[in-house]
Amino acid sequence: MRVHIIGTGLLGASLGLALSQQNYRVSLEDTSPTAEQLAADLGAGEPAGGQGADVDEPDIVVVATPPDVAAGVIAEALRAYPRATVTDVASIKTRLLEAVRGMVGASELDRYIGCHPMAGRERSGAIAARPDLFTARPWVVCSDEDTPADRLGAVVAMAEATGASVIHLDPGIHDAAVARVSHVPQVVASLVASQLRHAPLEEVALAGQGLRDVTRIAASDPGLWTQILTGNAEEVRAVLRDLRTELDAVISALDLGPGSTGVLARTIAWGNEGYDRIPGKHGQAPTKYAVVTVLVPDTPGTLARLFKDIGDLGINVEDFRMDHAPGRRLGIVDVSVVPATQQELEIGLSSKGWQIPESVIEKEGHA
Ligand SMILES: NC(=O)c1ccc[n+]([C@@H]2O[C@H](COP(=O)([O-])OP(=O)(O)OC[C@H]3O[C@@H](n4cnc5c(N)ncnc54)[C@H](O)[C@@H]3O)[C@@H](O)[C@H]2O)c1
Ligand SMILES: O=C(O)C(=O)C[C@]1(C(=O)O)C=C[C@@H](O)C=C1
User: Fold this and answer.
1) Same domain, yes or no, for 248 and 221?
2) In the beta sheet, which residues pair with residue 62?
3) What is the DSSP track for 249-310?
4) Sorted alphabetically, which keywords does the UniProt record give (predicted)?
5) Residue 185 CA to ligand 2 centre (angstroms)
6) What is the DSSP string of 156-182?
7) Which of 8, 11, 10, 53 is closest to 32 using CA atoms?
8) Number of structural domains, the chain?
9) CA pair distance 351, 361, nearest whole angstrom
10) Which pLDDT tens digit goes with each residue over 216-275?
11) What value does the mean pLDDT of the chain take?
12) Among 34, 119, 143, 202, which is 20 to 30 Å from 93 by CA?
């Protein structure tokens, strides 16, 4: 199967890496010759030679450019490769489909299948690409009754070859869903991080894991996200309005008038409820893991020794997170394991000389 990827940044290069490992023949095209060459050098596929590249007819063309140019690139690919199925990975679907519909005829449109892998990072470009980016992530496919079954099958097979799980959705339903689970979270993370801009550095230095958990995606690309937010403006605005209502209630409750504690407690409790609905590892319901905290010297090879010792105890690591103690060469490693193995792990690691300050049961965290 030949796949031609147009746009070889984070998503395009990650896809190229994943498909190359599954014996797909991948060619790469980008308006930036450096981006194209970099993705090729990293092993994502063969460079095709820049914009308007003339590659042997591919079976599938994947457009992985920024959303604001995606419609034009999709229309151009439908014309340039008259037998290929053309798909994309853009984060917004309704407006993109409308724009493509305005640029091509009905028979060409039948060869276009909009997609959106729900997998990404807060960094851009091929240098941040990973072959396992899509593993166990949802991959939304927006086909309709006019989509030929063989073309749909080829796109689904390609998505599944990356390790993703395919979900068929109407573009409108997709856009409403991602406003809530992706686009508004990005806005909120950015707003929270923005509050730090003028804070004294001594205050910021107190930051614990809570702030880091809430703000990882605040490092995302402003250019890309401006396009995503404007491309899904109506749905994002609707979710933000609901959020504003609840935010206003919290602000009023902080006047500490009658009923205020109820509002504050309810806000946190409703958050608990929403959090519990987020799917956990490999798309299953969230699992409660036991977290064993280990203090490790910040020296080369220590983590490898720790994981070997855990492996020797016959215990599986479900997740792990590492932090650094401020001003000290000390790492704080949280190892998540199934609760039944927690005590055995603590005793086993202590007997091997590892320093274990405490044990806490908590829910599975987010990457
Ligand atoms: N970043 C994420 O987390 C994420 C996740 C899922 C989907 N997406 C979607 O994937 C797409 C790409 O995002 P990304 O994060 O990989 O961006 P990126 O900036 O890392 O890469 C985009 C690449 O497209 C190239 N490009 C721009 N215009 C082009 C054109 N006309 N023809 C050919 N190449 C062109 C750029 O040079 C760049 O190399 C976007 O539509 C985005 O909505 C992103
Ligand atoms: O994990 C991240 O860094 C992401 O932001 C990825 C994420 C998301 O989950 O919201 C962001 C935008 C995409 O369209 C799909 C995935």
Assistant:
1) yes
2) 5, 87
3) HHHHHTT--TTHHHHHHHHHHHHHHHHHTS--GGGSPP-EEEEEEEEEES-TTHHHHHHHHH
4) Amino-acid biosynthesis, Aromatic amino acid biosynthesis, NAD, Oxidoreductase, Tyrosine biosynthesis
5) 9
6) HHHHHHTT-EEEE--HHHHHHHHIIII
7) 8
8) 3
9) 21
10) 999 999 999 999 999 999 999 999 999 999 999 999 999 999 999 999 999 999 999 999
11) 93
12) 34
Q: Is the ipTM of this complex over 0.90?
A: yes
Considering the domain architecture, whether residues 32 and 109 belong to the same structural domain is answered as yes
Summarised one tens digit per residue, pLDDT across range 146-187 is 999 999 999 999 999 999 999 999 999 999 999 999 999 999
Give the ligand at the shortest distance from the Cα of 216: 2
* Ligand 2 atom closest to 122 (CA): 3
How confident is the model over 51-66, as a mean pLDDT?
Answer: 88
Residue 89 CB less than 6 A away from ligand 2 = no
Distance of alpha carbon 8 from alpha carbon 34, whole angstroms: 10
Q: Is 28 left (phi over 0), alpha (psi -120 to 50) or beta?
A: beta
Higher pLDDT, 251 or 332: 251
What's the rounded mean pLDDT across residues 307-321? 92
Domain check: are 256 and 323 in the same one?
A: no
Q: Are residues 164 and 185 in the same domain?
A: no
Does a structural domain hold residue 281?
A: no
In this structure, the residues whose C-beta lies within 6 A of any atom of ligand 1 are 6-12, 30-32, 35, 51, 64-67, 69-70, 73, 89-91, 117, 120-121, 124-125, 224, 228
Ligand 2, residues 91, 124, 175: which to mutate, most atoms within 8 A of Cβ?
Answer: 91
